[in-house]
Write a structure and sequence with these properties.
The complex is a heterodimer of chains A (506) and B (330). With 506 residues, chain A is α+β, with helices and mostly antiparallel strands. Chain A has three domains: 34 residues, no CATH class; 310 residues, no CATH class; 65 residues, Dna Ligase, domain 1 (2-Layer Sandwich), CATH 3.30.1490.270. In chain A, the strands form six sheets. Chain A has a five-stranded mixed sheet. In chain A, strands 13-5-4-20-21 form a five-stranded mixed sheet. In chain A, a hairpin with a 2-residue loop joins strand 9 and strand 10. In chain A, helix 2 crosses helix 6, helix 3 packs across helix 12 and helix 8 packs across helix 9. Chain A starts with 55 loop residues before the first helix and ends with a strand. The relative contact order of chain A is 0.17. By secondary structure, chain B is mostly helical. Chain B has one domain. Chain B is globular and about 65 Å long. In chain B, 45% of the residues are buried. The chains are: A alpha+beta (506), B mainly alpha (330).
């Protein structure tokens, strides 16, 4: 992708050290000697030196911190995470290791006007995705009119024939969407992918903010930042609006987790706690006469809405994978009978398919008659012969991704690969082209981040969370994920990434 | 509440109580032996027996037994195992217990894991045991003051008192397994010291001495009577069972005229068994036999709590389909 190359010859720190007063030694401060990335867009500092105007108040204040002060704030933030057990598990044996998700204290600000555009773009996109899913499982107009090749959609692993002809309660498919945005060297946000199945990470958005407020209370008094704390309440309200007719009043909403050994268990528990609903496992539910009940100490209680954090495959051994012990037998039948809402709906994986993603801009035009506010990264679909040829000829310049993988698995980063890796990948792509797409390598924007070598630029992305019930609401900001390894463009937590607090400025 | 969640509350409390009691026994034994020369076989082996460890493969020396009962990951009753499982249960029901309970539980989990606890154990053994004892006490205080006294709380209490009833019985049973060197040692300073140690491991030394006694009886019988029958001391078996009965009744719904659930019936039966006897009857029938009956019955009650509250049948009964939400199991 062609972008503005921003080289910074002779970049000097925007904060020359203050002259020492009264003979005291001047300790180095946070941004002293910070050198931005040679080409990437820096989220704090403008190309010609000095902070972006909207970052000035933040840089002024954080820039006053001496390194020692910053270190001690870092230590107290880490301790807060450890003491509260805000961890994810790496279960290699029964007594697994719990790790904290590395958190960087330098926030990532987004100015109000830019956020307004992103918000509008995300609402538009999710609206189109919901209309697309309804269409795909009903009239399939978009396929019949040739906007998207039918075989691409109907042959997708995420497509569920069981959903054809069925409309979920309230007509919503993607109740919770996590859309990954990245900013290239030209400073423009583009969509990298949509996560319409079970996007995770929102608990870290809330916990990161809580820890930031604890560690930097003064910053939040001086700089107005949009609140994120409404998320659990908004989610509960949205889910209540799509409860099936004829259920409990108020509707009984539950969070369904695969169990305590799931690496995201902390998040499941966090959401249930903050939404004020029960956290359940598959074994806690049963279906009787197509109605879902919760096993309680005082007998069964009807369940109306299930925010499920497990994949379609594991939901119901009678309908999907028979070997799944995590799900609830009969759940899908109860769903089809219209007696329970599943969030997200079954079959949303079809819009997570990386070979369907390139068509989301067309979906916006087709269903809404509008120009898409957010653009995609140009994508080569290997199922198309021309794209396949281009991909194989340019492997060393492209990122090649398996269409149904997530978490940074199953991909080839062309410019960083060896000839042997490229040969191996080329073979896989040739054998099963439908399974791959390719994109130009985007140099992700960077944010100053604390590293072993002091503050240095590290690449980030942004995952906003979009909730849809009777209306659509976007959590201000989202999860900023950071690649902690120098030069790395992979930000996934499973690949050793960290996170930052995202500030939508008022 | 969700049956599985009730089960985790129940076990959180049991593991915490178990860790505390194990620490108590080890602490008292450790101190007691400073005063008396007792054959090594009798010093530490009874502690293994009352915890149900019958196949300990090593020499039951002081350090070996303390290591096994404190740190061994293979020993499900060790302090480390109990605290691990307590914290694991707490983690699973993080959304049910209060945030302050969780932070404290997690704090002590980290303390056990990061070497600080080991250092305390190696440098000041009694301080370490006292610290472990305080974990449960602190968590109970925090729970009482910060957690809703709802159904989850009743299961927390049920777990606490059921475990404690069993632990008190087991602690007393140490006496049965600690044979006195000679018959004439009955009533001797060693015998007396054993009873004092048992009282102390139940924190009962002062409450015991404050209770007026009409008829002078030998100290052993008096201590046994106090720890089995006392109606006010919070660690006596009878008092614990009474608390269990109240918690089970509250958990089951507390409605007037309700048919008692199976656990309630079994608890009532055990209380009735004790109420039908005096300490003289107990001594005549055999203290060990009575204590064994208590431990077995508590086990049975635990099973019944499980089937009644934690694994209800996955189907609608007719009463439930008609809109009834009362207990319909067993």
């Amino acid at each position: 992708m062609a972008g503005l190359v921003t080289t910074l010859p002779g970049f000097r720190s925007p904060f020359p050290t203050e002259p020492a007063g009264n003979g005291t030694r001047t300790a180095p401060k946070l941004f002293d000697g910070y050198t931005p990335h040679p080409t990437a867009w820096d989220e704090l500092f403008a190309p010609l030196g000095g902070p972006h105007p909207h970052c000035q108040p933040l840089v002024d204040r954080l820039g006053q911190l001496r390194l020692g002060e910053f270190q001690s704030k870092r230590a107290s933030a880490d301790l807060a995470f450890v003491n509260q057990g805000i961890t994810f598990s790496v279960y290699s044996d029964q007594r697994g290791v719990e790790k904290i998700f590395p958190f960087d204290l330098i926030p990532r600000p987004i100015p109000a006007h830019e956020w307004a555009t992103l918000e509008a773009g995300l609402v538009q996109r999710v609206k189109a995705l919901n209309l697309f899913l309804h269409d795909v499982y009903h009239g399939q107009r978009i396929l019949k009119e040739g906007v998207i090749p039918a075989e691409l959609v109907l042959g997708s692993k995420g497509f569920r024939p069981e959903m054809v002809g069925f409309t979920p309660p309230g007509g919503v498919y993607v109740h919770i969407c996590g859309t990954d945005l990245i900013r290239g060297t030209d400073g423009q946000f583009v969509v990298l992918e949509d996560n319409g199945r079970t996007p995770s990470g929102v608990s870290y958005v809330l916990e990161n903010r809580a820890v930031m407020k604890k560690v930097f209370p003064q910053l939040f008094q001086d700089i107005r930042v949009k609140r994120v704390e409404d998320y659990p309440r908004r989610l509960r309200e949205a889910l209540s609006t799509v409860a099936p007719a004829g259920g409990s009043a108020p509707p009984q909403v539950v969070v369904l987790s695969p169990g305590q050994y799931n690496s995201a268990y902390f998040e499941h528990s966090f959401l249930a706690r903050h939404m004020g609903v029960e956290l359940v496992f598959g074994q806690d539910l049963f279906v009787d006469a197509d109605v879902v009940y919760l096993k309680t100490t005082r007998g069964p209680q009807r369940v109306d809405v299930i925010y499920r954090r497990l994949d379609d495959d594991f939901l119901d051994p009678e309908a999907f994978r028979p070997d799944s012990l995590l799900g609830v037998p009969g759940l899908f039948q109860a769903y089809r009978a219209g007696n329970v809402t599943l969030a997200n709906a079954v079959g949303t994986g079809v819009c997570d398919d990386k070979a369907v993603y390139p068509y989301t801009e067309d979906m916006v035009r087709f269903y809404l008659g509008e120009e898409p506010i957010l653009r995609n990264v140009p994508t080569y679909i290997c199922a198309r012969p021309d794209d396949l040829k281009y991909t194989l000829d340019h492997l060393s310049e492209l990122v090649v991704k398996a269409v149904n993988e997530s978490g940074g698995y199953g991909m080839l980063m062309g410019p960083f690969s060896t000839a042997a890796q490229r040969a191996e990948f080329a073979e896989k792509v040739r054998t099963n082209p439908r399974n791959y797409v390719a994109q130009p390598v985007v140099t992700l924007s960077t944010v100053p981040t604390w590293t072993d070598e002091g503050v240095a630029p590290r690449h980030v992305d942004l995952r906003p969370y979009i909730i849809t019930g009777s209306g659509t609401w976007v959590l201000p900001g989202g999860l900023t994920r950071t690649a902690l390894v120098k030069g790395s463009l992979v930000v996934n937590s499973s690949q050793g990434g960290g996170s930052k607090d995202t500030w939508v400025l008022e | 509440m969700i049956s599985r969640v009730a089960e985790h509350c129940f076990w959180l409390a049991r593991y915490l109580e178990r860790a505390e009691n194990t620490a108590r026994v080890l602490e008292v034994n450790h101190t007691l032996l400073l005063d008396f020369q007792v054959p090594i076989e009798q010093q530490w082996k009874p502690l293994l027996i009352i915890s149900g460890v019958h196949d300990y493969p090593h020499e039951p020396t002081s350090e070996n037994v303390q290591q096994h009962m404190t740190w061994s990951a293979d020993n499900p009753c060790s302090i480390a195992s109990s605290l691990w499982w307590a914290r694991e249960n707490a983690r699973i029901i993080r959304e049910v217990i209060s945030g302050e309970m969780w932070e404290r539980m997690n704090y002590y989990h980290l303390w056990m894991q990061n070497g600080a606890a080991r250092l305390a154990y190696d440098t000041n053994r009694n301080d370490f045991y006292a610290q472990v004892r305080r974990i449960n006490q602190l968590l109970h205080g925090i729970a009482d003051a910060t957690m809703s006294h709802d159904e989850a709380w009743e299961f927390f209490k049920l777990g606490t008192y059921l475990e404690r009833a069993s632990q008190t019985a087991r602690i007393m049973d140490v006496k049965y397994h600690t044979l006195l060197p000679k018959l004439e040692d009955v009533g001797s300073p060693i015998d007396h010291a054993h009873w004092v140690a048992i009282l102390m491991s139940c924190s009962g030394y002062e409450p015991f001495h404050k209770r007026p006694r009409a008829v002078p009886i030998d100290p052993g019988t008096a201590v046994a009577e106090f720890l089995i029958f006392d109606d006010q001391f919070p660690r006596s078996i009878r008092r614990c069972l009474w608390e269990c009965e109240w918690a089970a009744t509250s958990a089951a719904g507390n409605a007037v005229g309700r048919i008692p659930s199976e656990p309630e019936r079994k608890i009532a039966a055990l209380i009735a068994h004790l109420d039908a006897r005096t300490i003289a009857d107990v001594i005549r029938e055999g203290l060990h036999e009575t204590l064994t009956h208590v431990v077995d019955s508590v086990h049975d009650i635990g099973q019944s709590v499980h089937t009644t509250f934690f694994s209800p049948p996955a189907r609608m009964t007719q009463a439930q389909s008609l809109g009834g939400m009362t207990q319909h199991q067993g």
